[in-house]
Design goal:
About 30% of the residues are buried. Helix 3 crosses helix 4 and helix 3 crosses helix 5. The longest helix is centred in the first third of the chain and has 17 residues. This protein is about 30% helix and about 25% strand. It is of the alpha+beta class. It contains five helices and ten strands; from the N terminus they run H-E-H-H-E-E-E-E-E-E-H-E-E-E-H. It is globular.
Length: about 250
């Protein structure tokens, strides 16, 4: 007969004295909110993860051609992220079950895509929202995001401008991150994590090894709302749009 030793768990201790050279940085109001929301997300939302790698070659060409024309008119240039955001919104319209929230005994599917865009600021991260993003053109989304990001970094956003989003996109490609998975922004059901475009060898349709521009995209989803098949359908639509960027203008 064997006896079981009960498992003892304890909360991590918070040091009251600091090692030499260390300093204590008090949490700002923003960091406290971030800590609370992300802890709730990871402990209350059953995350699952899917990832794809897309061919970004056509996207780079299309963006370059578009920016040549925009430069002639004096308009602001489009970024890679602008195209990703437009694709994320369009794919959500095609697969509306991802544009939803868990509500206890029901799931709320939203008619509009309110796009949250992760923006790094001094105290952490904010996610200003592009309202009814499905009604906006690529350039309108680009202009809206540039305005929101600028005002987020200068602390001029109104509280309602970072509330009420229905899907979120977080892009760390410009920071040199190849791939990652993000934490869901509650009460949303999905968040996209976009990595850098990396030049690497790939096999084409003729089974030839050729240089290619590849981009990794991770999807974190709330399994109470989105099943694996739905997440896969969404990513398939996203891939189609990114690899055929002219479709975003239709």
């Amino acid at each position: 007969k064997t006896s079981r030793v009960p498992m003892v768990t304890s909360k991590p201790t918070i040091p009251t004295t600091l090692p030499e050279g260390a300093k204590r940085v008090l949490l700002s109001g923003m960091r406290k909110i971030i800590a609370e929301r992300l802890l709730a997300s990871k402990t209350q939302i059953p995350h699952f993860y899917l990832n794809i790698e897309v061919d970004a070659g056509e996207l780079l060409k299309f963006r370059s051609q578009a920016n040549v024309q925009l430069e002639k008119t004096g308009a602001a240039k489009l970024t890679i992220n602008d195209f990703i955001l437009k694709a994320a919104v369009t794919a959500a319209i095609k697969v509306p079950r991802v544009n939803a929230s868990y509500a206890g005994d029901s799931i709320i599917e939203y008619a509009d895509v309110h796009l949250s865009v992760a923006v790094a600021v001094e105290d952490g991260l904010v996610t200003p929202v592009v309202r009814r993003a499905q009604t906006k053109t690529l350039r309108q989304i680009s202009e809206a995001v540039k305005d929101l990001a600028t005002r987020a970094r200068t602390k001029k956003l109104k509280p309602e401008e970072y509330q009420g989003g229905t899907i979120t996109v977080s892009n760390l490609g410009s920071y040199g991150i190849d791939s990652f998975f993000a934490v869901i922004n509650p009460p949303q059901a999905i968040i996209l994590a976009v990595g850098a475009i990396v030049k690497k060898p790939a096999v084409n349709a003729q089974n030839e090894v050729v240089p290619a521009h590849r981009m990794a995209i991770g999807l974190s989803a709330d399994h109470r709302v989105v099943d694996g098949a739905i997440g896969a359908q969404y990513l398939a639509e996203l891939r189609q749009l990114i690899e055929n960027p002219a479709l975003m203008l239709i």
